[in-house]
Design goal:
This protein is mainly alpha-helical. The protein has two domains: about 170 residues, Arp2/3 complex 21 kDa subunit ARPC3, CATH 1.10.1760; about 120 residues, no CATH class. It contains eleven helices and two strands; from the N terminus they run ααααααααααββα. It has a two-stranded antiparallel ribbon. The longest helix has about 40 residues. The radius of gyration is 23 Å and the shape is globular. The chain starts with 10 loop residues before the first helix and ends in an 11-residue tail after the last helix.
């Protein structure tokens, strides 16, 4: 028995669920704060944006006010902020509003029904949402327009952009329960997952700016052989692993002399965001091809009037059985 968190005509239940989810993930993310950064990961914005895209009836003024109030409550109680809690968290609401407005279904044009096209919309939605969030967030820190503003803006932008680009595909794809566990028990699929772990290890050992791109071939392999929900999870865990490795100095991607006043972590986040895009598009394309082949097979192998196998369908079923047919269809 599954419990539904949101119902279209139950405003109180939706508000309570949004408030609790926002409070929980704000509390978890606030414990990921490190020196000179607001948070190593801040998944709240991408999670709320994904929930609103999946449930368009949450895309209301009251929904945003509930999330805003929960964020302010968390920072006021657990972080000791007062006025900064209002100004800083408005940047989070800006990200959610911009990204949801670009992704939500009833705001898209009727012709925008291609899976690849919808997947490509995630990139500009995350880009514009992160830019709006970073601009307001850096300004809310009372920083003048100088090198410190650039550093603060880059920290905000890189974190929001990378986290949302990794997390939104997981939120917007079909649920994991639609993928049978037995589909993973296959040598090619297990080897693809092993290749991702191996490429991460090699990248950490070799180091350098190019080490972030080492998992790309393995991720594309996963995108080809694995279902899109599993591929999205693999991309998410790979990106998180790379960012943590860079944070603790295991993966060195930048020398001592840097041309731009940005941190190693900011550079890693931007690199991870660009790395995640290619496997995602490949996974969506392969999923669309699989669905098309499945529909073509149904049309060729089944008679829709009698709901029985056609001649070619009967032969294909016999050919794939334990005792294949010895006679080919005329």
């Amino acid at each position: 028995m599954r419990v539904k968190l949101f119902e279209e005509n139950n405003v109180k239940k939706n508000a309570l669920s949004l408030c609790l989810i926002t409070l929980f993930f704000c509390f978890v993310s606030s414990h990921l704060r490190i020196p000179e950064e607001f948070s190593l990961f801040w998944p709240v914005n991408a999670l709320i944006a994904g929930l609103m895209v999946r449930n368009p009836f949450l895309h209301t003024t009251s929904g945003y006010l509930v999330c805003f109030a929960a964020m302010i409550f968390n920072d006021t109680v657990f972080s000791g902020w007062a006025l900064p809690a209002v100004t800083i968290n408005f940047a989070n609401i800006l990200f959610i509003l911009v990204s949801v407005s670009m992704l939500i279904k009833h705001l898209q044009s009727p012709t925008a029904n291609s899976q690849v096209f919808n997947a490509m919309r995630i990139f500009p939605a995350c880009l514009l949402g992160a830019a709006a969030c970073a601009t307001w967030g850096a300004w809310a820190q009372d920083i003048d327009f100088n090198a410190r503003f650039v550093v603060a803006w880059a920290d905000w932008f890189s974190e929001q952009f990378s986290t949302s680009l990794m997390l939104l595909p997981v939120m917007l794809t079909r649920p994991l329960r639609s993928v049978p566990l037995r589909t993973l028990i296959h040598p090619a699929r297990l080897l693809a997952l092993l290749a991702v772990a191996l490429s991460l290890t090699v990248g950490a050992l070799i180091g350098g700016a190019g080490s972030l791109t080492f998992p790309v071939p393995a991720l594309i392999w996963c995108a080809i052989v694995l279902p899109i929900p599993i591929t999205s999870l693999v991309i998410l865990f790979t990106g998180i692993t790379e960012i943590v490795l860079v944070l603790y100095g295991v993966m060195n991607i930048q020398g001592d002399d840097s041309l731009l006043p940005i941190s190693h972590l900011t550079s890693a986040r931007l690199g991870v965001a660009t790395v995640a895009l290619s496997p995602l598009l490949v996974a969506v394309s392969m999923d669309a091809i699989r669905q098309l082949n499945h529909r073509l097979a149904l049309r060729a192998n089944y008679d829709f009037l009698t709901q029985l196998l056609s001649r070619s369908g009967l032969y294909e079923t016999c050919a794939s059985s334990r005792f294949p047919c010895s006679v080919k269809p005329a």
